[in-house]
Amino acid sequence: MSQAPLPLLLMGPMVRRADINEVCIQFATSKTLSCRIELNGYDTFCEHESIRLGEKLCLHFVHIKPISGAFPVDQLIGYKLFSNDDEIPLTAFCYQGRTVPEFAVPRKLTQILHGSCRNPHHPAKDSLVAANQFVQQQRDDNKPGADILLLSGDQVYADDVAGAMLIAIRRLIDVLGIYKELPLAINLPEIVEEQLYQRHLYLPKVPWQKRKKLGVGYWLKKDVPHFSSLKAANHLVFFEEFIALYLLNLSSSVWQLIDFESINFNANNAKDQQLFESEKTALIGFKNGLQDAQVLFANVSSLMMFDDHDVTDDWNLTAGWEQVIYQHPVSRRIVNNGLISYWLMQGYGNDAGAKTASLLAPFKQCLSGEKQWAFSAFDKTILDFNHWHYELSTTPKVVVLDTRTHRWRNEQNFNEPSGLLDWERLTELEDSLVSHEQVIIVSPAPVFGVKSIEAIQALFNICGQPLLVDVENWMAHEGSAKKLLNTFRRDDTPKETLILSGDVHYSFCFSVQKRFGKHPNRIWQLTASGIKNEFPRKLINILDKLDSILYAPKSPLNFFTKRWQMEVDKHQTMGDGQKYLVSDSAISLITLDKGNLTRYQLIHGDGHITEFDLDEH
Fold first, then answer.
1. First to last CA, the chain
2. Is the pLDDT of residue 556 over 70?
3. What is the C-alpha to C-alpha distance for residues 379 and 388, in angstroms, rounded to an integer?
4. Strand 35-39 relative to strand 76-83: parallel, antiparallel, unpaired?
5. In 3D, which of 265, 268, 287, 284 has the Cα closest to residue 276?
């Protein structure tokens, strides 16, 4: 393991929320510092929030505010980072030909980068690298490039961790002295190598004796895991592990501290050995692209929202899942560790602490004199916090939905899927949409999904297995589906609504209009998934053809769907090999003109671009 001096900057800087009255920049250092950030050409003052997470790990948020007036919009602003009077070099985070990193305060949106699902050990290339190269080309042409980067879920995979990544996490915890939480009642082997691909065996389960006698599982004497992820063999457990995972997902410098190439594993079987080696190969490619990702984050305002894998697969999918998890101390602790780490590494920057900063004081009180976290009192505080959603006062307005903690639970059957938003939040969404010409909604799961796939999910739900196929589409819950569709059918909703979604590991472009009424509104469902993840290509091609046959425009099956009053048009890709569903990993580039969609493109990890034909046929 490397004994070299630690770099001062461990992560960042990342430009997070950027408004005319305040800019929030996030980074991490190996020392406690008093920091400030200066914007080139502007008189500003700073407010600095520092959070100690380890002996050699400190998370920082610097809030930069103008002394008078407001920051200019839609033009590049350079910045420098200082510790007291010493400038911290940021040349590694600059675009070629620039001496400082630069960002723009977005106001009139013309280009948006959007994506989701970035799994480090997936063999696909990291599309953030290609996105950074796109912005570099724009800057070379003296253009700002993308106005904002929107990440709509699964920025990390806490439930699907590579074997080599888990070892890297444990090494990084030791190198940085990341503070640990009080011991949990889980009997994992002491040596991390003995835990690899075995952790799911130690996670809490519902004993078969407590299952309903009407079910087959009771008579087969089969325990039910609390955590329903199919890839939970290396599931994260401890708070310090979540923090280390974020650092390894966002920073190239921390990889140099753990000598990743020396990480090896002698598995007890050929299957695990082959899996370890293939995952490690993918991770080497991932870490080699992280410098590009860091440059992108340092130069483009980046906003985020969680989906399930940021915490665990199927997070709050059903009321029954919630009941089992939150009534068990270990399972509740694991989920809350994921949520707390999301708040620190993603959530705070989304609103620049406007509401999320209220969690800071009670969080800091959780650190004992022995430098251990005791979160029992904080758990209720963070679970009661209900302001993860946020809006951007841009043109068009951006409304980012929290579809995980505002669920509309099925009170009659706790095993039925919950609605993605409850009545109160759906009503707030309705109020956010009315009286606007154009609005962008960020919904982690597509509102208008692929009907054939949703039909398959419905069949699994009827068979009592909603967790098996992630029945998390908007139409799976009668109440939330009806309320949402009624909102879109109103005459005072925007004429142009863009819904940006991810989650599904394939990408598509649908346009939607209501069948009845004179209000000429159009809804665009733009789904981009994943940044570093893919749906099996052969299977997605079969489902694509199946959907085109079963749910053709004149098919009577359309009238059996909840959205039959909405006309959904699917748009094909342009060029050779036209298709509706694209599996190749990608991040999307959305181009607007006066708030209206003009181009929808996918920038793939290998650099090639796919464009959807937006014309009606």
1. 60
2. no
3. 16
4. antiparallel
5. 265
Reported as a pLDDT band with limits 50, 70 and 90, residue 521 is confident
CB within 8 Å of 369: residues ≥ 6 apart: none
Concatenating the DSSP letter of every residue in 551-579 gives T-TT-GGGGGSTTTTEEEEE-PBSSSS--
- pTM of the predicted model over 0.90: yes
In single-letter form, the type of residue at position 493 comes to T
Tell me the one-letter amino acid at 38.
E
Asked if residue 523 lies in contact with residue 513, where contact means CB atoms within 8 angstroms, the answer is yes
b (16+ CB within 10 A) / e for 360-397? beebeebbeeeeebebeebbebbeebeebbbebebbbb
Q: What is the pLDDT of residue 1?
A: 42
The gap from C-alpha 595 to its chain's centroid, in whole angstroms, comes to 25
| Residue 466 burial (CB count, 10 A) | 25
Residue 2's pLDDT is: 44
For residue 208, what pLDDT is reported?
Answer: 63
**572-577 contact pairs (CB < 8 A, 24+):** 572/612, 572/613, 573/610, 573/611, 573/612, 573/613, 574/610, 574/611, 574/612, 574/613, 575/611
Alpha-carbon gap, residue 546 to 560, rounded angstroms: 17
Per-residue DSSP letter, 306? -
Please state the length of the chain: 617
Q: Cα dihedral sign for 205, 207, 213, 216?
A: positive
Give the span between the Cα atoms of 499 and 150, in whole angstroms.
12
List, for residues 120-138, the tens digit of each pLDDT value: 999 999 999 999 999 999 9
Rounded distance between C-alpha atoms, residue 8 and residue 29, angstroms: 5
- β 148-151/224-225 pair status: unpaired
Strand-strand pairing, 596-604 and 586-593: antiparallel
Q: CB neighbours (10 Å) of residue 578?
A: 11
DSSP bridge pairs for 417: 318
Runs of H (alpha helix) within 473-594? 478-488, 537-550
Share of the chain above pLDDT 90, in %: 75
In angstroms, the CA 432 to CA 390 distance is: 11
**Structure letter (DSSP) for residue 152:** -
CB-based contact 97:509 (threshold 8 Å): no
Neighbours of 135 (CB within 10 A): 22
Distances (CA, A) of 249 to 11, 111, 354, 467: 10, 25, 26, 27
